[in-house]
Design brief:
This protein has 91 residues and is mostly beta strands. Helices cover 0% and strands 23% of the residues. It is built from no helices and 6 strands. A hairpin with a 4-residue loop joins strand 4 (53-56) and strand 5.
Length: 91
């Protein structure tokens, strides 16, 4: 039971495979892309050592730790980012 709506929303149901009364589960996903954007995401991998992350020095585009405090969870990791001029869709 899968339905694709005209605005690209997909819904589906899966019947239970047991006679027991059990909780219902729902899964959601989304796409972070747009047809208006170019196909080139300008993606690159940057090491994250804390603080603000410069995505594009020419355009002065930064991923600021003050705006995204969850970045602190990724200190010491490599991050896959754009240069700030395109979308990078991933889930």
């Amino acid at each position: 039971d899968i339905i694709l709506r005209e605005n690209a929303i997909v819904t589906a149901t899966l019947p239970a495979n047991t006679d027991e009364t059990i909780p219902v589960v729902s899964f959601f996903g989304h796409l972070d892309t747009s047809a208006e954007q170019t196909a080139d995401t300008n993606a690159h991998r940057l090491p994250y050592n804390g603080g603000d992350l410069c995505l594009n020095p020419e355009l002065n585009i930064y991923l600021r730790e003050s705006e995204f405090p969850e970045l602190k969870n990724y200190i010491g990791d490599d991050l896959i980012v754009t240069d700030g001029t395109s979308l990078l869709g991933a889930d």
